[in-house]
Amino acid sequence: MRTPLIVANWKMNKSLKDAEQYGQELLPLLADHSGVEVVVCPPFTSLTVMSRIFAGSKIKLGAQNLFWEMKGAYTGEISPAMLVDAGCTYVILGHSERRQIMGENDTIINRKVRAALDAELIPILCVGETLQERENNRAREVVKEQLTRDLKNITFAPQGLVIAYEPVWAIGTGVNASSDDAQEMIGFIRSYLAKIYDRELANSVRILYGGSVNEENIAEFMGEVDVDGALVGGASLQPNSFAGIVRFK
Ligand code: 13P
């Protein structure tokens, strides 16, 4: 059984005050809700305060990035141990914004995934093709290459890693993939995981869809057999719309 998982990725948004207010508003909206695991990923600066607000609730905390060393002379970086210390359970890795804007490659992402797992954080590994790659019929090949390189020599427990399929052309554009396209790629990802690991592990890994998810389209994605949840950007920034996505049924 794979528990549905809905993740808010705030990206680089919200002051401490805004974050606190969001937390206070979200808690009652989800207080009586069950059957869906909920994770909120604020910027680093709001992690500690959000951890305090969510303490005692079922809402979990995630970070949006980490560095692979545990401590030392790495100016400006945040270690896996620091994220655990701040109350994180999850960490988003390999997001297309980090790949494209910050120049992270698969070698870097592979190191980060390993470091997260070593610290007992659950990586949410993002993969996905650009519009050009899709138009050139290379979507599967690109996703397969990302998975192969990002997971090279990495082992993980059944619920210890999450994958998010986020086609780059659907991120922040309002143009979501169709639920058929999401199912097609996520089904492919699951069968590829069965090939590089085994079927049992592949069946236990939660695979999310991300890219212009909102309250209107979430139910359709969740109706697909292999789609286990969503990684939500823009529509996660308001407690009401994020709670509406969590309560998709
Ligand atoms: P949007 O939901 O704003 O398209 O962002 C998706 C995303 O990048 C989540 O990580």
Features:
single chain; 249 residues; alpha/beta; TIM Barrel; 8-stranded parallel beta barrel; 11 helices; 8 strands; globular; binds 1,3-dihydroxyacetonephosphate
Topology diagram in text:
Blueprint: E1 5-9, H1 16-30, E2 37-41, H2 47-54, E3 60-63, H3 80-85, E4 90-93, H4 96-100, H5 106-118, E5 122-127, H6 131-135, H7 139-150, E6 162-165, H8 179-196, H9 199-204, E7 206-210, H10 218-222, E8 229-232, H11 239-246
Parallel strand pairs: 1-2, 1-8, 2-3, 3-4, 4-5, 5-6, 6-7, 7-8
Residues 9, 95, 166, 171-172, 210-213, 231-235 line the site of 1,3-dihydroxyacetonephosphate.
Please explain how this structure is put together.
Helix content is 41%, strand content 15%. The protein is of the alpha/beta class and 249 residues long. The chain has one domain (5-246): Alpha-Beta Barrel (TIM Barrel). Strands 1-2-3-4-5-6-7-8 form an eight-stranded parallel barrel, surrounded by five helices. It is globular and about 45 Å long. It starts with a strand and ends with a helix. The structure holds 1,3-dihydroxyacetonephosphate. Residues 9, 95, 166, 171-172, 210-213, 231-235 line the site of 1,3-dihydroxyacetonephosphate.
Brief write-up:
Helices cover 41% and strands 15% of the residues. The chain has helices at 16-30, 47-54, 80-85, 96-100, 106-118, 131-135, 139-150, 179-196, 199-204, 218-222, 239-246; strands at 5-9, 37-41, 60-63, 90-93, 122-127, 162-165, 206-210, 229-232.
